[in-house]
């Protein structure tokens, strides 16, 4: 997504752009549309979790296999399909998203597929995320 799409919510962040992209992905992506397997949408920020739950409430009603969680809440769990919302869009200021432990938890929960929704511009400015991005 584009630079500047994050919004500060207190000391945390949310992205309406990412929430809309994830909604679209859950509605139209052939893999997710066709599967009855669990899909976990993981985000690094609680305000983003709340925004996703609100934005996608009707999808969850139709698809109870879709779950929304923070990265901290998903530690120790897995799902066949993970959609990761990274939120941050300002290069050089991705905050605790740059924490290697959180990054490891965020990208290691998927059994079959990991879909990353975020700003390559912002994440590419962090050496750990740049390594992840280079692997996609």
UniProtKB/TrEMBL annotation:
<dbReference type="InterPro" id="IPR045055">
    <property type="entry name" value="DNA2/NAM7-like"/>
</dbReference>
<dbReference type="InterPro" id="IPR047187">
    <property type="entry name" value="SF1_C_Upf1"/>
</dbReference>
<dbReference type="Pfam" id="PF13087">
    <property type="entry name" value="AAA_12"/>
</dbReference>
<feature type="domain" description="DNA2/NAM7 helicase-like C-terminal">
    <location>
        <begin position="9"/>
        <end position="120"/>
    </location>
</feature>
<protein>
    <recommendedName>
        <fullName>DNA2/NAM7 helicase-like C-terminal domain-containing protein</fullName>
    </recommendedName>
</protein>
<dbReference type="InterPro" id="IPR041679">
    <property type="entry name" value="DNA2/NAM7-like_C"/>
</dbReference>
<dbReference type="InterPro" id="IPR027417">
    <property type="entry name" value="P-loop_NTPase"/>
</dbReference>
């Amino acid at each position: 997504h584009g630079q500047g799409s994050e919004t500060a919510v207190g000391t945390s962040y949310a992205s309406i752009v990412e929430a809309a992209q994830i909604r679209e992905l859950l509605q139209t992506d052939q893999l997710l549309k066709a599967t009855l397997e669990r899909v976990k949408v993981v985000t690094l920020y609680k305000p983003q979790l709340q925004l996703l739950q609100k934005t996608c409430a009707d999808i969850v009603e139709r698809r109870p296999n879709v779950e929304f969680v923070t990265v901290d809440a998903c530690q120790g769990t897995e799902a066949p399909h993970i959609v990761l919302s990274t939120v941050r869009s300002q290069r050089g200021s991705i905050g605790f998203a740059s924490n290697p432990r959180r990054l490891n938890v965020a990208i290691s929960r998927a059994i079959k597929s990991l879909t990353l929704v975020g700003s390559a511009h912002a994440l590419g400015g962090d050496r750990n995320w740049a390594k992840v991005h280079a692997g996609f």
